[in-house]
Design brief:
heterodimer; A: mainly alpha; MetI-like fold; two-stranded antiparallel sheet; 2 strands; 76% helix; B: mainly alpha; 3 domains; three-stranded antiparallel beta sheet; 67% helix
Chain lengths: 445, 427
């Protein structure tokens, strides 16, 4: 901020009040020096903040007293937690005098790091500012300079999307690889049993720790299938009715109302599924003499279907409207009724687009989390019966990662392997769907 | 001759099938209408069931009791100050007041049931009142205190006696209090003033709302400038090429990546790698930034596209540099569209739950968060947490919290629509 004024003043002084002589307008000199002093300092600050804790921790851990020599990574992690808690004045499990010393060291290092941080950032800001104002002369091309930097910033912002993707792939892949070091890939992909409880004690019952993804995947597919059975007919028929039959006023009211379904947060659907739909289905099952689980796949699937209706309907609406009017007119001219036109001319023409839309909706359903977390089951059942409880990939990720966890166990790492599966499957579906939709669009343009 | 006959027979064939085809046409149209109506019905059922469950949570029942701030609460020889007040036995005071109110209760078990009639936060309210007004000591004061959630549900009629945990004796006491006009229902301010609590009658959504607010501030502050910058680059500067294609494919795919995967990213990168604190609004904001960026970029690009090229050419023709053209002329015109897109992105972020579970925002937090690094929870996560609690009073509160969340979303979307209407320009 202040360097903006410095640059501004400097430029004013050297121009001697005759701004015509300057290459650029006054504010650009200000921007230039502000950017020079602000940007490097900001970058250093961010880098510093993101690595400070890691570095300080490793410094503290590097001079552990010899008593802790034999500790495993996990125990060291717990120890570090204790140290941090202690330095923030919180209670820790088991007081040890050595820990106190370490935590003092931790606090001290933190304080030093903070001071150093402020000093370094300020110094860099000042150096940058001074450097910039040295550079300011009458002929300095300040505007071009500033514009170059701004353009750099714009490019940087737009590459964030790439970095996010890389970040996702790397973080998930990295942990998944660690998982596959413990559990072979073949067991993971083709195992028919999923029970991620690993033994705490050797002799524990039911702690086999089976990591076969098949039952989890079938559960996901079952629920998604039910959802599509609800969403596709209703969504598609609504789209046809709204684009071919409905009077204008009806369309202008019904369409935004359908979109409201898409705006409702998924946690609300989860609540609705768990507390309204699931008991309803169970009661209905009881009157019919069926044994329905409280967390039946049917309830979760139905509600998920409701959530996806607007998705299917707005995508199909787009493709139906993209069918050229000439094809409709041709069908009418041959004496076809409206429904015949729709079924025999428009739908076949729009089919690729609709298939693409449905694929996108499937990928939505597979990745949907809150509804299934709240309304579907936890135990992995290899079944195709919609009245039983099944579990899904997302439910397993949430249950494995919520709550306290050690970061090295196969149990938590399994969540990342599941995440990788989820990412790959949805990505493939999306790429395929986008490809189909794009191909289809080109056909009529 | 035969031609004419053919035509006749064709006409006859068409005539024959016509009724059937028309009926089919009618059926098809009805099926379409039925689909639309089914979808709308489902929306209606969803909203009605939530509103009807949630409405009772907006009122609460209070009981009027006469508390005697007895001098004997203060040990002899001590003066009244913060410390001595803290040491006083207000639990005992509440119990004593209830015993005096219902002298007929004698048995130990019954007494226990009696104490359960009022919210167990009552002693702290009494303490705070004495803290504020020291002159209360020695006086008898009539105070409206919160009823326990079971009493509350009965009185509001959301439960019948049959499925309530209230015993007959307790019900009798309630009716006695009603007869003495010592019971009333009032608007549930507690719900908007308190943080989470194990006791339904004391729990509120203030903490969750503050958490959501902090998260949204972080998300908006990061994703809006970055999204707009990315859109400007892609729309105005980028030349078609490999890099550009790569960026575009990435943005489109990120928009369709399941939100929970962003949670995994946040957990692995921000928390495990960078060592940021769990449950902090800052981390949640960073995760949601990455999630909403594609939405904002896509909306901003559409807004930039809608600015006619004549504006750009005019600016360039006047000698503006390309950067000046964008920032001085195109950007101001595209701003309303960008804002609309960002508001919709923020509404999405506000309702998002799954990635926040991954980064530990699921903890039970009573305190109202004061800053970006305090442990916090957000409104949708609070809803998730409450929906898991079996108590009926919490179910009401869950639905009420959903209503508050939906109200926020409606306001945000209306704002977006209003912005669009107000600044929409036809070129």
């Amino acid at each position: 901020m202040s360097s903006y004024w410095f640059g501004w003043r400097k430029a004013k002084v050297i121009s001697g009040g005759d701004f015509q002589k300057l290459h650029s307008r006054l504010p650009y000199y200000g921007y230039m020096s502000a950017l020079w002093s602000g940007l490097p300092a900001l970058m250093i600050l961010l880098l510093w903040l993101s690595f400070e804790t890691t570095i300080v921790s490793s410094l503290v851990m590097s001079d552990l007293p010899p008593a802790y020599e034999g500790y495993s990574e996990q125990q060291k992690g717990l120890l570090l937690n204790d140290i941090k808690n202690l330095s923030e004045g919180r209670q820790t499990s088991g007081k040890k005098p050595e820990l106190k010393i370490l935590s003092d060291r931790y606090t001290q290092l933190k304080a030093i790091a903070n001071m150093a941080n402020i000093a370094v950032v300020l110094a860099i800001a000042i150096i940058g500012g001074v450097f910039a104002s040295q550079k300011i002369k009458v002929e300095t091309r300040a505007r071009n300079n500033v514009e170059k930097i701004v353009k750099g910033l714009l490019i940087a912002s737009s590459t964030i999307a790439i970095f996010t993707t890389i970040g996702i792939v790397l973080s998930v892949l990295f942990e998944a690889v660690r998982f596959f070091e413990k559990i072979p890939v073949v067991d993971f992909l083709f195992g028919l049993e999923w029970s991620p409880q690993t033994a705490i004690r050797e002799d524990q019952v039911g702690s086999s720790g089976a990591f076969g993804i098949v039952p989890v995947l079938t559960g996901t597919l079952l629920i998604s299938f039910i959802a599509m059975m609800v969403a596709v007919p209703i969504g598609l028929m609504s789209a046809i009715y709204l684009s071919e039959y409905a009077p204008k006023t009806f369309r202008s009211i019904a369409k935004p109302l359908l979109e409201v379904l898409a705006g409702v947060p998924t946690v609300v659907y989860g609540f609705f599924a768990a507390l309204v739909v699931a008991p309803m289905i169970r009661d209905a099952g009881v009157t019919l003499g069926l044994d329905v689980s409280a967390e039946s796949a049917l309830a979760a699937g139905l509600v998920m279907g409701i959530m996806i209706i607007p998705f299917v309907s707005s995508l199909s609406d787009d493709v139906i409207n993209a069918v050229p009017q000439a094809m409709r007119d041709g069908a009418y001219a041959l004496g076809a009724t409206r429904s015949e036109t729709v079924r025999q001319v428009i739908l076949p023409a729009a089919l690729p687009g609709i298939v693409g839309g449905v694929l996108l909706a499937v990928s939505r359903a597979i990745g949907e989390t809150m509804i299934v977390v709240m309304a579907a089951g936890l135990s992995a059942n290899l079944t195709a019966n919609p009245l039983e409880a099944v579990t899904t990939v997302t439910v397993q990720i949430v249950t494995l990662l919520v709550g306290d966890q050690e970061f090295d166990s196969a149990k938590t790492l399994a969540a990342f392997a599941l995440g990788l599966t989820l990412f790959v499957v949805t990505l493939a579906l999306n790429v395929l769907a986008l490809y189909i939709v794009r191909k289809y669009r080109e056909q009529y343009e | 001759m035969s031609n004419k006959q053919d035509r006749k027979s064709v006409a006859a064939a068409v005539e024959k099938g016509l009724a059937r085809r028309k009926a089919k046409e009618k059926r098809f149209q009805r099926a379409g209408l039925a689909a639309v109506i089914t979808a709308l019905m489902m929306l209606a059922v969803l909203l009605i069931s939530i509103v009807s469950t949630g409405m009772p949570a907006f009122t609460q029942t209070a009981l009027k009791l006469d508390f005697h701030y007895d001098e004997s609460l203060l040990p002899a020889g001590q003066t009244l100050n913060e410390e001595t007040i803290r040491a006083m036995d207000f639990h005992g005071l509440v119990k004593k007041t209830l015993r005096e109110k219902f002298p007929q209760v004698k048995k130990r078990k019954d007494k226990k049931a009696l104490y359960k009639m009022v919210s167990n936060g009552t002693p702290y309210i009494l303490r705070d009142m004495l803290m504020e007004d020291h002159a209360l000591l020695g006086q008898i004061k009539s105070i409206w205190v919160l009823a326990d959630d079971e009493v509350d549900s009965i009185f509001k009629g959301s439960k019948t006696i049959a499925d309530s945990r209230l015993t007959e004796a307790q019900y009798g006491w309630v009716t006695q209090l009603v007869a003495e006009e010592r019971v009333m229902t009032r608007f549930n301010w507690t719900f908007f003033q308190n943080g989470d609590s194990r006791e339904p009658e004391q729990s509120g959504i203030r903490g969750a709302i503050m958490g959501s607010l902090f998260v949204i501030i972080v998300t908006l502050a990061l994703s809006f400038p970055m999204g707009v910058a990315a859109a400007i680059y892609l729309e105005e500067f980028a030349r078609p090429g490999r890099l550009n294609d790569l960026i575009e494919i990435n943005i489109n795919n990120l928009a369709a990546v399941p939100s929970i995967v962003f949670g995994l990213l946040g957990l692995a990168v921000y928390i495990n790698f960078m060592g940021m604190p769990r449950s902090a609004p800052l981390v949640a904001g960073l995760v949601l930034t990455l999630m909403t960026l594609p939405t904002i970029i896509i909306a901003s690009r559409a807004a930039l596209k809608s600015v006619p090229p004549s504006i750009r050419e005019a600016a360039l023709g006047m000698g503006a540099s390309k950067m000046q053209m964008v920032f001085h002329h195109v950007l101001p015109l595209a701003m309303p569209g960008m804002l609309t897109g960002s508001i919709i992105g923020m509404a999405q972020a506000l309702g998002e739950t799954a990635p926040l579970l991954m980064i530990g925002m699921i903890a039970f937090i009573v305190d109202i968060p004061q800053g970006l690094l305090d442990p916090a929870t957000v409104l949708p996560v609070q809803i998730y947490l409450w929906a898991d609690v079996p108590e009926a009073a919490f179910r009401e509160r869950t639905a009420a919290a959903i209503m508050v969340l939906l109200a926020f979303l409606v306001v945000m979307n209306l704002l977006a629509v209003w912005l669009r209407k107000k600044f929409e320009k036809r070129w």
